[in-house]
Amino acid sequence: MIRRFLSLEWKQFTRASYFQKGLAIKILLFLAVLYFGGIAIFIGGVMFFGLKKIFPDIDPIVMVNNYLIYWILFELMIRYFMQQLPVMNIKPLMIIPIKRNSIIHYLLGKTILSFFNFISLFLLLPFTIVLLFQGYPAINVILWFFAIMCINMSINFLNFLINKSNTVFYGIASVVTVIVALRYFNIFDVTEPFGILFNGLYNQPYLALIPLLLMIGLYKVNFDFIRKGFYLDGTISKKIKEARATDLSWMDRFGSVAPFLKNDIKMITRNARPKQVVMMSFFFLFYGLFFFTQSMYIERMPYLLAFAAIFITGGFLLSFGQLVPSWDSEYYKMLMSQNIPYRQYLESKWYLMVFAVIIAFILSTPYIYFGWDIYLIIAAGAMFNIGLNTFITLFGGALNRVPIELNSKAKAFSNTNGFNPTQLLIALPKMVLPIIIFFIPYQFISFNAGLIALALSGALGIVFKNFFLNKIEHIYQKGKYKTIAAFAEKK
Amino acid sequence: MIITSNLSKKYNDDIVLNIEHLDIPKGQSFGLVGNNGAGKTTYFSLLLDLIQPTTGHIKNNNILVHESEDWKPFTSSFIDESFLIGYLTAEEYFYFIGELRGQSKSDVDALVAQFEDFFHDEILGKKKYLRDLSKGNQKKAGIVAALIGNPEVIILDEPFANLDPTTQIRLKQIIKDLAEKHGVTVLISSHDLSHVTDVCERIVVLEKGEVVKDLATSTATLKELEVHFAGTEAV
Question: Which of A86, A201, A399, B199 places its Cα 20 to 30 Å from the Cα of A408?
């Protein structure tokens, strides 16, 4: 029976439209997997020596155990937002004689192969091997590794429950908030007891039984959960959420683009995929921390700060904007036959991106902590984002004809929606251009000249807004039929 | 109102539609019938400029459909579910379409109120997103949305499919009223011969992309169509 399932999965995989796309994408994806896998293995390999060097007094394994809880919470969060639930197309299987239990076992078993399970494996396996070579007691190390892997799998199964049941989600979310808050206000540091716990796993290898039981227990809970809901109106059918009414009439002041803006806000708040993208763009805000904390960039390569500045305020612009017509792919035919001038549609998207940049800029105020120079470069970057990157992004959208399923999360590394070589090519000027614009005046005149040039280029873009929009509209018009046809393709 | 000349659509070498001349006057209720693949949806898509004609053109109220966008303000349509915005409730969707067509909220409310019986209390005020409605209810919402904003041309693809009998009867009345009392040009396609003959003044039969029959509806029409599609015409 399992063999049949596997053959079905294989067909689903090889016949999916994303798989049949160009070879280039497959190679790129493969490289990406290799890259991230490689990084994980590398970090895992050098972690021991690195920790030993930085904290010579503390045993690396103790150090790792102390902070393991943060990794686990981080993983849980990433999984919640990124990991796709294991949904096999179950409806046709319900009426043919296959034991329910074997379908469910298969469904759950499949999640073991998720990419996310391998991150921990890639990270900790090299670390474990290094430990063994360093002469740590083999039984302790191996059972510790085993215990952590069991915890890893427990998270995997827990994630399923969190996604499927609101009670579990709010429960876990409040526990995590409390933990972080306690630590933040220095009331109680949970790192310690958890550190003791994980160190205990290492020191008393037989305790590995506990994570193992935890994993089995969670598997069982999941199993029962699915078993109970194994009806068309149960777990398998999509959740029907009650519609929330949102009053957005205050947006009417934006005139003719208001209906679209209101619609876009609803689109973002009511669908899984755009929500995910907005979450991601929030993380972009912290991108500056990589750069501004290192004096090397500030003193020797300030032009790279322009690059960071683009990312800080442009998270939404870059991640949401690059998929612009695709967001409306599900009802594009309607938009094209309704009483809508293309121009208005594009303009509304432009406004949306501009708002997002302004909001991100306001949120980036704390960067003043790193000095006014830094803050000014963020401001100049925001100007560039508003004035030029918005148009480059809209232009890139004209070449993007990949439909998006709004209400399903993007799968990591298996969903190539909007991921194609043209997109990469379009993304390049968005990042390189600001560096060049900043670099030339900076090199020949001064830092401030670079700032002014960057800000001015953005201002110029705003002045020529109508010109750019006209050009872009023309390109969209030309590709209209192709876009409609591509969006109509079912996955 | 709608003049089609020398219109053809080819995919690779397959001709899927080839209409030499078709003139639909204002205020006519026009029915298009034909088996699967006859070219009904292709013709409607060309009317809405969703696909590009290989040759020829369609003029909607003297506007060349594939060159200007000016036909959009007075033309509305419901072809399939991809005309609905799944994450909106029915009310929100109606208001959105209303805004696009320059109708105030109260205009939309007034229009939608006329169709309360049509909705059987299953669509309005249910706090349900359109994507969560049944196929039939989605269709009802789409058809009503196509009536918003006093359009002069209404295009409905398979409006009777998936609808319950009560609604089918009500919809027939609505379509008749639109054409007779309000002078709206209504174009519908259907597989249900008795429905189209009930509703339409004129019925065109498409076969493999060509017009094979163009009938003014009379009492004999249904019989004639049934004979045609039964394939026993030679008798």
Answer: A399
Contact B129 A331 (CB under 8 A): no
* B91 belongs to a structural domain: yes
pLDDT tier, B30 (very low <50, low <70, confident <90, very high otherwise):
very high
* Residues of chain B with C-beta less than 8 angstroms from the C-beta of A336: 48-50
CB distance A484–B85 less than 8 Å?
Answer: no
B205 in any annotated domain: yes
Other Cβ atoms closer than 10 A to A272:
14
The CATH number of the domain where B62 resides is what?
3.40.50.300
pLDDT digits (tens, 9 = 90+) for A315-370: 888 888 888 888 898 899 998 888 888 888 899 999 999 999 999 999 999 888 88
Contact (CB<8Å) A334/B82: yes
Q: How far is B146 from chain A (nearest CA, A)?
A: 10
Tokens representing residue A13 in the block: 């995989």
Q: Which residue of A has its CA nearest to B82?
A: A331
**H helix or E strand, kind and range, residue B214:** strand B210-216
pLDDT digits (tens, 9 = 90+) for A30-40: 777 788 788 88
Task: Domain of residue B40: give its range.
Answer: 2-230
Is the minimum CB–CB distance between B100 and chain A shorter than 8 Å? yes
How many inter-chain contacts (A to B, CB under 8 Å) are there?
83
> Domain count of chain B?
1
CA distance B26 to chain A (A): 20
pTM beyond 0.80: the answer is no
Domain membership of residue B78 (yes or no) is yes
For A221-274, the pLDDT digits (tens) are 888 887 776 665 554 455 556 666 667 777 777 778 888 888 998 898 888 888
ipTM more than 0.85?
yes
Å from B224 to nearest chain A CA?
Answer: 35
CB contact under 8 A, B87 and A407: yes
For A239-298, the three-class secondary structure string (H helix, E strand, C coil) is CCCCCCCCCCHHHHHHHHHHHHHHHHHHHHHHCHHHHHHHHHHHHHHHHHHHHHCCHHHH
Tell me phi and psi for residue A243, to 5 degrees. Answer: -70, 135
User: Does residue B235 belong to any structural domain of this protein?
Assistant: no
